[in-house]
Amino acid sequence: METRKIQKVGGSTFTVSVPKEWARRQGLETGEVVRLYTHRDGSLIVRGRQTDGESLTSVSLSVTESSADAVERSIQGAYEAGFERISLHADDGFTDEQRRVARTVGRRLVGTEVLDADADRIDVRAMLDASAVSIRQSIDQAVSVVSTMQETVREKLTGDVEPTGQVSDRLTDVTRLVALIRRHYNRSLVTFGELDALGIDRVPLSQYDRTANRIEEIATATVRLDSAIGGVALEAADRQAIATRLTGLRSALEEATKLVVEGGNAPAMSVEPSPLEAQRQSAGEPQDDSVDPVRARIFDHLTRIDDAVRAIERVGLQSAVRSGQSW
């Protein structure tokens, strides 16, 4: 780090010199124009000739695999990286299935449009205006979807009411919201105006990104939990124990994300293991023949959900500490 004194020129203009070595590395000479970016957090960024965000204007990717998944991964990855225009090309051409998947991904991701899906080229445009995006609202929506997913699993376990929809159908809703958050977080690392357009500071955005990743983990584990439960006959007491545990985890998730998004002095929730998990812990290692593999998977999925919730709690606690709140 270097320090500089602010000078006053002409009675009204403040000036500050830039490091000579930095100017040389940027290829700058006397009389050239640099770009200044002021931010809501009080920082001032100086850039040389490169236009802000220029590297995210477009990207061209070669798809060498013939699978539809290769197209989906390429579009999703470039979208989350923050690119505005994504071009895919394949030497052997794209199959009908690959072009269909490209259109499906384009409809799924927020703010994207498939411009062309020809035999040898796929063009996707992602031009979502950051000023129209609310990262906090996206977090809230993702948590709401996950809560609905977990409530559906609970309904299947208890049989109190007829389950509303399939759990796996809602996973896409979570992943599209998480992809949106990742996109803007990654763009903020390259495009200095992104933070101002989003109306958020760098540290909170980083916390939201970490939280979103954990929410996606919880959603995935919930889908797998639902599948595991459907593959084993459980006693009524066991089903109730899992349902109770899941209800506690859902409440903890809602409270943890509230800490991240809103702050506050509410203590972090601690969710105790269910009797079924205690039974597993006393049963020994997973390779123990006395442990039903399907039951072991159920326990593992619950543990993964619990770990992700606790990780979000830690992010919320960090936010509270930074704001000077007491616990």
TrEMBL record:
<dbReference type="GO" id="GO:0003677">
    <property type="term" value="F:DNA binding"/>
</dbReference>
<dbReference type="Pfam" id="PF04014">
    <property type="entry name" value="MazE_antitoxin"/>
</dbReference>
<feature type="domain" description="SpoVT-AbrB">
    <location>
        <begin position="8"/>
        <end position="52"/>
    </location>
</feature>
<protein>
    <submittedName>
        <fullName>SpoVT/AbrB domain protein</fullName>
    </submittedName>
</protein>
<dbReference type="InterPro" id="IPR007159">
    <property type="entry name" value="SpoVT-AbrB_dom"/>
</dbReference>
<feature type="region of interest" description="Disordered">
    <location>
        <begin position="265"/>
        <end position="291"/>
    </location>
</feature>
